[in-house]
Amino acid sequence: MKITADTNLLVRIVVADDPAQAKAAVELLASAELVAITLQSFCELAWVLSRAYNVPRPSIVAAIRAFLETENVIANLPAVEAGLAFLQTGGDFADGVIVHEGRWLGGETFASFYRDAVSLSKAQGQDAILLS
Q1: Which of 14, 52, 96, 99 could be stapled to 86 by a disulfide with Cβ–Cβ 3.0 to 4.6 Å?
Q2: How far is CA 38 from the centre of its chain?
Q3: Does 112 map to a domain?
Q4: pLDDT tens readout for residues 58-116
Q5: pTM score, two decimals?
């Protein structure tokens, strides 16, 4: 079976707050021929782990990397790596994905009201403007 993993499945695997659901999720991922994890699911996972479970950034990075290193998992690796780069330097995973996807779509300058995202984008060599 080829599956697309919803965020709640990923959360159950990482936090195991419901042992029965965690076991079912792990078994499904292990038995699937292919597990597609979307950018949206990774963005939601990072947000839920951070906000709802107070998981520290290094542990969120490790959890996402663990999924990426699973043999049957496929994801948009360049975009996920961009999200991880932001996360590891104090920003939001989703902002890194947004900057990456915008460049991929042809955007040249990242524009935001969010000072941290603009600063991180500039620190990574991207053109960015802060609106006020």
Answers
A1: 96
A2: 9
A3: no
A4: 999 999 999 999 999 999 999 999 999 999 999 999 999 999 999 999 999 999 999 99
A5: 0.92
What does the block give as tokens for 36?
């597609």
* Closest alpha carbon to 92 in 48, 38, 37, 36: 48
Which amino acid belongs to residue 10?
L
**Within a domain: residue 97?**
no
CA–CA gap between residue 103 and residue 109 (Å, rounded): 8
Name residue, tokens 């839920």.
Answer: 48
User: Which residues span the domain enclosing 41?
Assistant: 2-75
Considering the domain boundaries, does residue 7 fall inside one? yes
Counting the structural domains of the chain, the total is: 1
Compute the distance between CA of residue 85 and CA of residue 32 in angstroms, rounded to an integer: 29
User: Which residues contact residue 13 at a Cβ distance below 8 angstroms, ignoring those fewer than 6 apart?
Assistant: 22, 25, 26, 29
Residue type for 54, please?
Answer: N
Q: Per the domain annotation, does 129 fall within a domain? A: no
